[in-house]
Amino acid sequence: MSRAFLVVLDSVGCGGAPDAARFGDEGANTLLHIHEQVGLKMPNLMKLGLGAALGISTAETHGLHGVAREVSLGKDTPSGHWELAGVPVPWDWHYFPDTHPSFPPEISAMVAEFCETDGILGDCHASGTDIITQFGEEHLRTGKPICYTSADSVFQIAAHEETFGLDRLLQLCQHMAPILHGMNVGRVIARPFVGEDVASFKRTKNRHDYAMKVPSPTLLDWAKADGRATFGVGKISDIFSGRGVDESRKGFDDVLMGHLSDLVDEAPDGALVFANFVEFDSLYGHRRDPAGYAAHLEWFDEAIGPVLDKLRDGDLMLFTADHGNDPTWTGNDHTREQVPVVGAGVGAKDIGQVMFVDVAASVADHLGLTERGPGRSFL
102, 114, 209, 338: least CB-packed within 10 angstroms? Predict the structure, then answer.
């Protein structure tokens, strides 16, 4: 029985979204601009057809390749992943203004009351690493949580994993999540960090996303309904609020590659493995670091080679993305882009331009699932 591996390279967009101007992102192109500014050596994905999908190579390809467009009105993680799993977002997200303060006073008061402090720190748009540098030492002195947001529909809370307490931070986020979800804020994110001072602060792997529940069954649910084993690698379980995921494996990207490799060895016939590699976005896109982004892409390409070599006859492995985050662009937020779709296991095929929901329909088609969703299979 066939297996399917759907691998999301978080933020690895390829420009060309027809509504990019609406988001202030006309001309953004994550992969092309990295290639032009730094250069990219990605022989494994290029051989499958990544270069052809981007229009930067006419070399012979051996895999499925094309690009996908999103219809959900966002450029965020839940919108992209939900739609790739067959469920476009049926509402507009709530975004906090880029002002200081960013949050309604009643929200800040609820956080402070839970923490038994006389206020919060941050209360603004910020980079997660920058705001820890700015407020980390004050947080250690006062115990006040660091709350911040971005151009995405998120409410993020950073706190020291030891002095504030990881369990306490998770309880705080869990307490605030239904309140913020009621405002159509997509995610409440716990951002624990460690260190003694600004020189040693660093975020840990214990991030946890409390996402709004998906409004209808997704590819993961379709697979489970047909009795298939489902695995989430990275933050997939968080994005889908645990729904449809039998087993979740987490860690930093190098650890996640090991998990993906192990699942190629271990996943039973008929299984669905849904993976997200986040550090393209979190470490290099938001920080506007083209060289770092390029290096991580090249690391991924080299590491995925042996994994591809282990695929069984009948396996499908698709690589795609959820949005863009052009590191050469202005600001430090996601960019509205279409995304590449590159696949191994079904031979050479140019699928042209498809929709995000077609990815879910195609994976379901490959697995022979009963439900296919609103998309059309490109296999």
Answer: 114
Q: What does the radius of gyration of the chain's CA atoms come to, in whole angstroms?
A: 20
286 annotated ligand-binding residue: yes
Nearest to 277 by CA among 257, 247, 305: 257
Distance separating alpha carbons of residues 122 and 320, to the nearest angstrom: 34
Look up residue 310 and give its two tokens: 């282990």
Q: Which amino acid does the sequence have at 73?
A: L
Domain residue ranges of the chain, discontinuous segments joined by +: 4-90+215-367, 105-211
Asked whether residue 259 is marked as a ligand-binding residue, the answer is: no
Q: Round to whole Å and give the CA distance between 10 and 230.
A: 20
Residue appearing with tokens 């997704």: 218
Q: Domain 4-90+215-367 in CATH: superfamily?
A: Alkaline Phosphatase, subunit A (3.40.720.10)
Question: What would the pLDDT profile of 86-108 be if each residue is shown by its tens digit?
Answer: 999 988 899 999 999 999 999 99
Q: Determine whether the annotation assigns residue 322 to a binding site.
A: yes
Predicted TM-score (pTM) of this structure: 0.88
Does 334 appear as a known binding residue?
A: yes
Rounded to an integer, what distance in angstroms lies between the CA atom of residue 157 and that of residue 121? Answer: 10
- Does 81 appear as a known binding residue? no
How high does pLDDT run on average in the chain? 95
How is 266-320 classified by DSSP, letter by letter? HPPTT-EEEEEE-HIIIIIITTT-HHHHHHHHHHHHHHHHHHHHTPPTT-EEEEE
pLDDT tens digit string along 354-376?
A: 999 999 999 999 999 999 999 99
Q: Which residue has the tokens 């998906």?
A: 214
Torsion-angle region of 352 (φ positive above 0: left; ψ -120 to 50: alpha; else: beta): left
Q: Please check if 139 is assigned to a binding site.
A: no
Report which of 359, 377, 369 is spatially closest to residue 221, judged by C-alpha positions: 369
